[in-house]
Amino acid sequence: MKQGLRSYISRKAYLKVLTLVSNRFDMNEQSNGEVTPEQQAIAEQKLAEWNNK
Question: Is the pTM of this model over 0.90?
Fold first, then answer.
């Protein structure tokens, strides 16, 4: 389970969305917390690293 989740949250598409939104949503499309500025910065950093390769 952890490996599947890690694989999903490491996708470029997921990271791009993190940089654009401030709310998280669950599988039922219900608001489920917030994306912090720190999480957005980490996503931006990972995307930048991939673009520089």
Answer: no
